[in-house]
Amino acid sequence: MRKPRKKVGNLLNSLHKSGKKGLAWLIDPDKCQNPKELENQFRWVKDSGLDLIMVGGSHMSRDNFKEVILSVKKMAGEIPVVIFPGSQQQIVGDADAILFLSLISGRNPEYLIGQQVAAAPLVANTNLEVLPTAYLLVNHGEINSVHYISQTVPLPNSRPELAQATALAGKYLGLKFFFLDAGSGSGNPVSTQVIVAVREVVKKPIIVGGGIDSVEKLKAAYNAGADLIVLGNSIEKDPGFLARVLDFKVWYNNSLNVN
Q1: HSE (CB half, 13 Å, CA atoms) of 213?
Q2: Which phi and psi angles does 229 have, rounded to 5°?
């Protein structure tokens, strides 16, 4: 008998309410040429303090999404696997949950509601836990793959009040989770000023990703109010970085003296 899936929403809400900080690893299927090799290299992860593994990307040049999900599930053990979808093509029922994203920082209706309408019947035919998530692209003005694919302009790091107003709109629309993303491969992360501004008006779990390639940047995002940090490119470039930041997360949470 299959074990019941862990509720990812409960995990995120628990992090937010307790003050503890979480860590997620984002795996891009397009960059995963050999899922079995990934599974073997990171077999130790299932016994680590990693909170989530996300799978997804902005574009899908390989027809290997299900294969990657299945390999990641084996590698993850009890760690929940969450789909971070670039389109409705990245929906399979073998994962544990899906971030049902609405790109509220942009004005392209295709990523505000169009892709969601196409994806909804597919999601309904799975047992995936659905996480209604406000998705905000925020950076220093760089145009990364996610901006190019979505045909949207990121909110500027220099205008935290714009991010704050956008997040507030997402709150009033009833979205339950908030993802601030600088974009894959960004040279600069979401600014601490933006995280603080969003934290002031959103009493919900805040996820932050993109451009975090050092323990110092991770710590700054945690201190600003991020509940969960997502790492991707930094682990692709240096697989050992994952173990180092996991150790730091344990130290950070212990230093908070929270239960």
Answers
A1: 14
A2: -105, 135
**Alpha carbons within 13 A on the beta-carbon side of 81:** 24
Question: For tokens 């990657």, what's the residue?
Answer: 68
Class of domain 8-249: alpha beta
Helices (H) and strands (E) in the chain, counts: 11, 9
d(CA 111, CA 120): 13
Q: How far apart, in whole angstroms, are the C-alpha atoms of residue 177 and residue 200?
A: 15
The lowest-confidence range among 20-24, 26-30, 196-200, 224-228 is: 26-30
Tokens in use for 216?
């110092």
- Distance in angstroms between the alpha carbons of the first and the last residue of the chain: 32
> Is 70 exceeded by the pLDDT of residue 1?
no
- pLDDT value at position 57? 83
Q: Is the pLDDT of residue 228 over 60?
A: yes
